[in-house]
Amino acid sequence: MSQVRITTTDTAYHLDSGHYHLTVSRTDPSAELVGWMTLNLLASVNTRGGRDETYETLPPVLVERGNVAVFDFPQRTTEWDAKTVRLTCTPETIALEVRVEGHGVLGDVTLMGGRAVLNTRAAGTFRSGVHARGVFSPTPAHPVRAVRPVSAPVALTVIGDASPGRLHAVFSPPPLVLAFCKDEPAGATDIPDGAWLAASVRAGIADLTFTELTYEPLDGGALLRFDYECHTEVRGSWTSPAVVFRAASSPWEAITQHRADLIEHGLAPSAVPERAGWWSRPIFCGWGAQCARAAGSVSPVELSRRDLYDEWLDRLAGHGIVPGTIVIDDRWQLTYGDCEPDEAKWPALREWIADRHARGQRVLLWWRAWSADGLPPEECVTDAGGRPVAADPSNPAYRLRVRAIMERLLGDLGADGFKIDFTQWFPSGAHLKTHGATWGIALLHELLATMYDAAKQVKPDALIITHTPHPAFADVSDMIRLNDVLEYDARGDLVPAVDQLRYRHAVATHAMPHHLIDTDQWPMPSKADWLAYARAQPELGVPALYYVESVDNTGEPITGADLDQVATWWGLR
């Protein structure tokens, strides 16, 4: 069994566990993780009232507890009665956290650095030195780079869209883990060989009240920033989530270790979820067909129609593709918030679903998360003007509404579950108001838990699909969707769709190994990409077909021979 062996000198503690070598300074707040980082052991816990600036650091205090070494670095600060940065060293891990005492509302919190006036009188923002060359991100972003230069920032977040600087929430939330390597990748989705250092966040849902974790490099240094957006109040004392450093053989092992660490500490579900047999059958989602038929002349949401879906499904059936699950996509409902079917586009939807059931098929409905469309303001997150911004799952009235919607859609209408989209449209803002005190990633979990629990009460085998591959979300999702395909790498070259989705599949399956994968299929840059991806889909999860007539990006027609080929690849004929 590994041990933490400590050698003490006048200026430092030298730790050797066999898994890492760490030199902890006795004279300043720093520690050298040999070969990887010079850890800066300052932290800033900013509040609504002001910036937290350290103005004096005290020598570390070492306490040994069996085979664990704990180093406390007391720091005098402008915002708190007391502040201590702690390093907890086990034979395999080094955990970094900060504890404060006092009263305040959290703004942003930084670890691996912070603002200070040091005992030497050097002042400003201090950061850790990073000795790696690449950093792996578990969240797809644009440009496409699974491993980016260590000088490039990373955002792990539940906030984003397709606007510049915001296309990094395709997974929302992703597993909260980064991994550092010594070599740069050869391509957009390549993973270098060699040793890796993982840095993961040890926190369960109750402590995930921040919206975003960012890795912020600058001039050879870097720190981590947690954004609490002034929605988490501290009364008495508060300890941040721990950032856990551990050696890994690959980023995939880093994600596996992250999940295991959360389960070991009781912070993520360990139970293997039950699966209904029909969940694994091929999916048809109408969104790609809607976009292709629209061809820029109308909005694709206008083409979520019963007659068109029948036409597309008939064509697929003629070529041997009879999907086990049909997803009726955006926009089958009159309003996103209350989810009443649009009778003009989907007349007699109950009867249509019953007919599909008679054919041995199941029907999912697309659901836009967070939408306040059609909801009364009192059930919403509101802005400074009192205007609705998003549905508020902390409000009991909204939770009751969701239960009623589930009774109506799954019970009366007969639908079989939901494809939940847009979890990244989190209602971000320090001024926003909710009924309850929960915020950040935890509030998203509450939103999904409200839907998930209400759905399962009505129909126990209802299928809930999300794009939330964080291990702590294992109890609010049955299937993880790989989500929309991006296009270009940092050089402006197209990245093959199948390469992107293999990378996403690896992230999702290591973070949530017992969940099914919805392989998705939109948008495709070309028919060749579509065919290449369709061929690979059965090995990557549950095959999902989006296209029937043509590819929306290029207008290339999809022939009967193409569909015959897909049916063969998917074992349908």
From TrEMBL:
InterPro entries in UniProt: Aldolase_TIM (IPR013785), GH (IPR017853)
Name of protein: Uncharacterized protein
Organism: Nonomuraea monospora
